[in-house]
Amino acid sequence: MMQIKTFSELRTQVRENTQVRIVIAMADEEEVMLADKASKEGLATFSLIGKADRIQELLDKHGLSSVHFDILNEPDSKRAATAAIKMVNEQQADIPMKGLLHTSDFMSAVLNKEYGFERMKRISQITVFQDQSNTLRFLTDCAINIEQSLSVKKDIIENAVLAAHAFGNPCPKVALLSAVETVNEKMPDTTLGAILVQMNHRGQIKNCMIDGPLSLDNAISKEAASIKGIHSSVAGAADILVGSSLQEANTLSKALNFYAGFETASIIMGTREPFIMTSRTDALQNKVNSIAATCWLYQKNNCIQ
């Protein structure tokens, strides 16, 4: 299987497969513009749920035609989230996306025991980013899991490995980030990292290579790893970066955007059916990338070659 190495390649692959319909719960100005851009790029078609008059007003304001969208009137955010999930269940749409509503309201609908999505394992968020070598990498967990015990960390890693597999990397290299490269009992993330590495060696975490603890420079720079005398197939060549905490991964994810200016995408793993949640501060192109990445996961899950 071909490995997708750039966002441009990703968007091309998505366009070449069966088009996906996305339903946005509480579409506002940003989401209306996003839906228009993504649909014009041939990534997906869209249903927009929200205040129908306001959505039409926004379309008129930007000179966009409503013929490209299905517009459903639902001014209440909780009911809009429920409607989006039910549309997917009833095969009127393929992927729900969070618009202008609270994350808690959207996630309550996604995980509703009666009509929500089936949870395969622990849910985690992954930031996909295109680095200075024009290669897609993965950073996790940047948004969801606050307490990261051994079992949580294992699930976070396995979700990221599955995502890398979907992008064509059969055995991704996983770096467990920390401030140091040595195991120190006063730094719990280093001892946790050592355990996870051993679990990987014993086959308890499969289809990847894990090393850690590694500081960021040693995870991504072979020169830095060489200077520090670290000899590892992962050091300097990591495909997946696993933050030592939610705070670290979240901060690094934002730094990729606001300092480095890298293109990024956000994907959510852990449920059988994919869904899209982006940050209000994400650039429009990064939201388009999130749509493309999630559409690709959907297409792969549905065995589209």
Which short descriptors sum up this protein?
305 residues; alpha/beta; Isopropylmalate Dehydrogenase; 2 domains; six-stranded mixed β-sheet; four-stranded parallel β-sheet; 11 helices
Question: What would you say this structure looks like, in words?
Answer:
The longest helix has 18 residues, at 284-301. It contains 11 helices and 10 strands. It has helices at 7-15, 29-40, 52-61, 77-89, 103-110, 150-166, 188-201, 216-220, 222-227, 246-258, 284-301, and strands spanning 20-25, 44-50, 69-73, 95-98, 119-130, 136-140, 173-177, 209-214, 240-242, 264-271. 41% of the residues lie in helices and 20% in strands. The chain has 2 domains: 11-118, Isopropylmalate Dehydrogenase (3-Layer(aba) Sandwich), CATH 3.40.718.10; 119-271, Isopropylmalate Dehydrogenase (3-Layer(aba) Sandwich). β5 and β6 form a beta hairpin. The strands form 2 sheets. The chain has a 6-stranded mixed sheet with strand order 8-7-9-6-5-10, sandwiched between helices. The chain is of the alpha/beta class and 305 residues long. α1 (7-15) crosses α11 (284-301) and α4 (77-89) packs parallel to α5 (103-110).
Short characterization:
The chain is α/β, with parallel strands linked by helices. It has eleven helices and ten strands. Helix 1 packs across helix 11, helix 2 crosses helix 11 and helix 4 runs parallel beside helix 5.
